Structures are given as structure tokens and as C-alpha cells.
Amino acid sequence: MADANAHRRILHLRAGRYALPLLLVLAGLLLWQAGIPVPGLPVVVDLGTLGGRESVATDINDRGQVVGKGGTEIGAWHAFLWEGGRMRDLGTLGGQESCANAINNRGQVVGWAQTAAGRMHACLWGQGRIRDLGTLPGFPDSEARDINSKGQVVGESGSQFETEHRNWGRAFPWESGRMRDLTRLAAGRTGQTLLSAEGINDLGDVVGCAGALPIPLMARAYLLSQGRVRQIDRAGGSSGARPQARRTPRTCFQKGPPQIQEQPQMASPLDLRWFLNLRGVLLRLARWLLRSICGGS
């Protein structure tokens, strides 16, 4: 009888030792499943939409400001800036749609917006205003792809319509109110035309896609540093930057309302799958606790 009482006391002591850690683990799991931030555990935040059903985030800066495009109530895409838990519509240049592609640490946003005439123009959002960056001569459309901390913008000027793709685009840099053809600025002549500029760092180095006109069958990635094309992939195959013989329209180039597809609803904390998942976790924890309590008895 004395041995049985002593055994029970040992079990109670072991159970008490593991009770608090187990409760903390369970509390963390419950908070995580409910979407409440828990230190050390990742949390997916739904940024919302602009009144529609879909949205896409494209970039984030070191201040946590997020940009992208969101569906509106009328089924169009609009550029947005998300900060402090709120998504703000950045508007257009008088047309129906727009898209934000990049944001720097100063909060300047670049992308494209439709004009009242239905053309797509590169634009810069900052200080509560939208600025039309224009296009290169001979091209009706443009799109800004990136911006560095100095406010230098790069992108592509070309055409958004498939029937006009006979005129391939040109990479451009924009600074201090002026857009220029990047190929003409490059000191290192390579026989390649710089078709697009996809990114720029704070040193002014630019990367993008190059090809030989009039029909660039094989696209090549390039690095433009200090005014010279320092690196172009000369391997036998495509570099992967833009490998198609003819470009397919980018998502941001698509005209008209977005194609809405039915998306499965996210499981709520009351969903059956949530309970099944939690039950499995609890069973594993219970088995571990029993082994820990009874292992030495």
C-alpha cells in the first residue's frame, strides 16, 4: 500500500513538472491556428482587396510598406499601397486600371496606369500624387519595373497590344523628369538591343533582357554597370530572363478586367480540418507526456 502511494506521488510530481510547458505549447498552437501573432511563429496576414475578390502583392520595402494590385468593385485592377493594416487605392491616369510593381525605402512607388485614351504609361506615385513618366519616342506605352533609393526608375517602353508586338520594346531609365533609351546610353556596344530593364540597385546597376533586332529569337540576360554592358549570356541556350521568341503579355500588360476564378475559402478555426489537425497534435503531445511521466516508473 505504501509503495502504491509513493508511486502515485511520483506520478503527480512528474505530471506537475510537465503541466506548464504543455499548457504553453497548447496556448501557442491555439493562437497560431486562430491567426493571432505569436513570437517565434510565422503568421500569414491577409492584406485584403480594394472591394473586389482578388489582390496580388508585388513588392515590400524595409519599412514594411507593401505594393501591388487589387481588384475593385467594378472588376478592374488598381495599384495599391498597404501600410499600418490599411490598403489604399493609388488610382490611375484617367483610365480603368493600374498596377504597382516596386517601392523603395522612401515610399516612392512605380508601376503603370492607364490613361484616359486607354494607353498604358509608366508612372510614379509619391507624396500623395501620381506622375506620368511618359514613353520613348515611337512607342505608345511604357511600364516602370523598379526604383532605387535615389529615385532612379527603370522599365520598358513598347506596346501593350499583341498586334503591335512587331515593334519590340526598349529598356529605359528615368531620372529627374527625363526618360531615355538605355541602349543608346550603353557605352559597350554588343550588337544587342536592351529590350527591357527589370531591376536597378542603389549603385545604378541595371539588369534586364537583351536581344538582336529586328527579331530577337533568343533573349539574353544583361548587366549594365557604370554605363557598360558588363555581362551578356552567350551560352547556347536562352538565359531564362525572357526566353520566348515572341513575348507573351505580362500580367500587368493585360487589358480589361481580371479573370476572376473561384478560390477555396480559407479554413476557419471551426472547420473540421482544423479540429482533425489539432487532434493529431494533441495526441502526439499526450503520448510524449505519458512517456515522460511513466518512463522512469
Protein model, in words:
The protein is an alpha+beta fold and 297 residues long. Helices cover 20% and strands 35% of the residues. It is built from three helices and 16 strands. The chain has helices spanning 2-33, 182-185, 272-294; strands spanning 51-60, 66-72, 77-83, 86-89, 94-103, 109-115, 120-126, 129-134, 141-147, 153-158, 170-175, 178-179, 193-200, 206-211, 220-225, 228-232. The strands form four sheets. It has a four-stranded antiparallel beta sheet with strand order 1-2-3-4, with no helix packed on it. The protein has a four-stranded antiparallel beta sheet with strand order 5-6-7-8, with no helix packed on it. A hairpin with a 4-residue loop joins strand 2 and strand 3. It is elongated, with a radius of gyration of 28 Å. Mean pLDDT is 76; it is low at 162-166 and 235-272.
Provide the CATH architecture of the largest domain: 6 Propeller
The CATH class of the largest domain: Mainly Beta
Indicate the radius of gyration in whole angstroms: 28 Å
Quick one: CATH superfamily of the largest domain? TolB, C-terminal domain
β-sheet strand percentage = 35-45%
Tertiary shape: elongated
Average predicted local confidence, pLDDT: 76
In order across it, which strands form the biggest sheet? 1-2-3-4
Question: Major sheet: size, sense and barrel closure?
Answer: 4 strands, antiparallel
Count the helices. How many?
Answer: 3
Q: Would you report the number of β strands? A: 16
Q: Can you give the helix content as a percent range?
A: 10-25%
Order of helices and strands: HEEEEEEEEEEEEHEEEEH
CATH topology of the largest domain: Neuraminidase
Which spans of ≥5 residues are poorly predicted at pLDDT below 50? 162-166, 235-272
Into how many domains do the coordinates divide?
Answer: 2
Structural class: alpha+beta
C-alpha end-to-end distance = 16 Å
